[in-house]
Amino acid sequence: MKYLLGIDIGTSGTKVALYSLDATAVASKTIEYPLSQPKNGWAEQDPLDWWNAAAEGTRAVLAKSGADPKDIGGVGLSGQMHGLVMLDADGNPLRPSIIWCDQRTSEEVNDLNRLIGDRRIIEITANPPMTGFTAAKILWVKKNEPQIYEKCAHILLPKDYIRYKLTGEFATEASDASGMQLMDVPSRNWSDEVLSKLGIDRSLLGSMHESPDVTGQVHRQASLETGLAEGTIVVGGAGDNPAAAAGTGVVSESKAFTSLGSSAVVYAVSDKVSIDMKGRVHTLCASVPGKWTFMSCTQGAGLSLQWLKSNVCVPEINEAAEKNIDVYKLMDSLAADVPIGADKLLFLPYLMGERSPHPDPFCRGVFFGLSAKHKRENLIRAVLEGVAYSQRECVDVFREMGVQINDMIVTGGGGRSRLWRQMLADLYNAPVSVLASDEGPALGVALLAGVGAGAYSSIEEACSAVIKKEKAISPNPEASLAYEPYYRLYSKLYLSMKDDFKALASI
């Protein structure tokens, strides 16, 4: 065994990456595919697009690296969470997958609360009903496409469809399945109570495993389509964020990561399960056997900065093009010259509604305190700070739940901004660092495959051996104090405007 393979089924594309046993990236390939939106608020993808991308990407990686397929010790799978894949008795997709960002299921969310009880469902599944979670999508198909549901023989998650195509096995694992709202999350298995009350036959669901468990082997047809050696093991893998946690070394208590992409996620690990009954953050099973995770999601993080860039910062776009530099670096330098508080300007990053810590589809973005003295640099600073305040709100909920965070890693495109990282360090009052090599979910599941193949004794041992961090940024005590009054005011604004957001939506 010389290599490990990670396959990450993302929303915009699938990444296939080959790693040596010391986590050095040997070769990678990303294949993109479309997103379909048949109606406003709907989001669907063709599962065969994922498979074709995974197969083509694997062939490309093998060709690029020159690796002997027999030297690949195992395959790990990661993927977008919450998607609904429905197969017939022959294993063929019955309809396009309804993916994580689809919002069609508001009536079914109400059904979940009615059928199970709004408190009981949180006690069992560790989360309030969500339009994006899988259970509501199953109910939608039962109600609106009964002829499809009657033919359904298997319900899988996106990455688990790839497992089926590789191995012929119908299986899942706890980290991804805990985002379906069909599991008893504290006991890490399917909930017979939830399934019974929703009228879902347990036989439709895959067998449950832990992330490093071997769930099957590459069969002959998959070997022909991918170039992988027949008999190569495939492990449970993980949902995208639990996989990213393994890829960043966040596999033990007190460690966490903040991902600053289009959305933002704060993710922490705990040895014991804890549930926020207010539904402000998610509790899920970790990719580490016997551990749980606490996860928040800010819908419009980097998206807010991108929106500002595209609609307000045209001079900076032009200047960056002339100087051949990254426009975000130029925006950073402008924001760095603005004092903390952006000259008394606050931004609420609710451009796409919100999930954490305010699960509210009606709220919208707000500049609060805007005056004639403010310039583009104030707006840039306010957006950066507003996203950082949102992450601090989520970390405060974690700490309220007894989760200690003393070591924070920042990943994603926003993590390249030293200014943004410093803001987070000051607001978290904790050191913030980046990784020497940020490979994310693909590396995480490759390491899980290494555990399953026996290259490492545990995912903790694997991460300790191969994950390296750059020097941490320490919090600035004076800056931390300066942010506090702005943060306290920021935290009040949503509550002050909550009813007004709904009124606006109803006009």
Question: Which characteristics define this entry?
Answer:
alpha/beta; Nucleotidyltransferase, domain 5; 23 strands; 41% helix; globular
Could you characterize the architecture of this molecule?
With 507 residues, the chain is α/β, with parallel strands linked by helices. It folds into 2 domains: 3-236, Nucleotidyltransferase, domain 5 (2-Layer Sandwich); 298-435 and 471-499, ATPase, nucleotide binding domain (Nucleotidyltransferase, domain 5, 2-Layer Sandwich). Helix content is 41%, strand content 20%. Strands 1, 2, 3, 5, 13, 14 and 15 form a 7-stranded mixed sheet that branches. Strands 18-19-17-16-22-23 form a 6-stranded mixed sheet, with helices on both faces. Strand 22, helix 15 (418-428) and strand 23 (432-433) form a beta-alpha-beta unit. The protein is globular and about 65 Å long. The model has no long low-confidence stretch (mean pLDDT 96).
Q: What share of the residues lie within helices? A: 40-55%
- The H-level CATH homologous superfamily of the largest domain, spelled out, is ATPase, nucleotide binding domain
Largest sheet: 7 strands, mixed
Provide the β-strand percentage band: 15-25%
* Integer average pLDDT: 96
Number of strands: 23
Report the span from N to C terminus. Answer: 63 Å
The chain-level structural class is alpha/beta
Q: Report the principal-axis shape.
A: globular
CATH third-tier fold name of the largest domain: Nucleotidyltransferase, domain 5
**For this structure, what is the CATH class of the largest domain?**
Alpha Beta
CATH architecture of the largest domain: 2-Layer Sandwich
Tally the helices: 18
C-alpha Rg (nearest Å) = 22 Å
